[in-house]
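Memo to structure team: turn this sequence into structure tokens by end of day. - J.P.
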Amino acid sequence: MAVMTSRFADGLAVGANLEEAAETAVRQALAGLSGPPDLVCFFVCGDDPDDVARAGQRAMSVASGADVIGCSATGVIGHGQGVELAPAVSAWAASLDGARIDAFALETLRTEDKFVVVGLPERVPDDRVAILLADPYSFPTDAFVEHSDEVLEGLPVVGGLANGLQGRGSVRLFANGEVHESGAIGVVIGGEVNVSTVVSQGCRPIGPTMVVTRAEDNVLLELAGQPALARLEDIVSDLDEEDRDLVAAGLQIGIAMDEYAERHERGDFLIRGVIGIDPEREAVAIGDVVEIGRTVRFQVRDAEAADEDLYELLDAHLRDTGRADGALLFSCNGRGSGMFDSADHDALAVRETLGPIGVAGFFAAGEVGPVAGHNHVHGFTASLLVFSSGPSGAGKGA
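Reply from structure team:
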């Protein structure tokens, strides 16, 4: 059964026959609408890329008349649950009265001295948001998203990196009847539509906030005037055994988004991974370039912190916007049963906080969403695009 709403609905079908599952999931979603669909999104998990492609074609044919996008994935989300590493299709349908929807397909062309992304729709003043689904093996998603604030003039971008159960070469992207084996696809939504974002990075801080006093590219040399590695060792030495295990499992660092805030706590940072240390230079390498003078704080991630962060952000979003009618959910494939007790965690969190609204999505190889007004690619994150009939909201989350 589809989740019933007037303007948004979802569907989910599990089974080895992916074409049948695609038709069932899309028809469930369409049946939940009280009017004709304007936008349909679907997500396919299957072993054989050719089967996935055929399922996508079936989904697009069933939803003909609407703008339709979709992608392959290693797991899908729909009907309040997640399905990982098993044949399944989820679908989401929306009636967006008064909205403008421009589908696109992006490809990368090489010029003499650089790569150029082509295929974006021309920017329109009342554009509200872009949904992006990308092949991580062929499309420069990190570079594109990091420069999207300039290219798209501040337009929020939400979405995820597609994947396939066979990895490289098995990704399939779908847009308005076409099947793509590389690049990126999506839609720009504009006009009379109320959208907002929630980006839950699921970390909690350890140790104090520190100013970067010396750095080279992505290597932190000094924090608060002391060697970065020495500062890190001091912080770890003060932790209990449980948190030390979390540090060993994968230390993170948060880059403060508001340098003028009096305090920097959980949710105030853009999270990036710590990727190595250099004992000779007493340095710490991280997964981003941080300028001297920026404020940072080391972080750890566990199921408890990720659970609290998501629920707190969803509760805050509901308080700010008043209501939610539908949402697309892009969860990291490292979440689900890999982080929580169940693949259903993020989907259930959305349902418990925002209500029984139409929600679908997939487990992504990287998530796209804005933090503090700037678009980024994330890991181990739940990124949501929320539609409501209340006032238009700005991007939420951390």
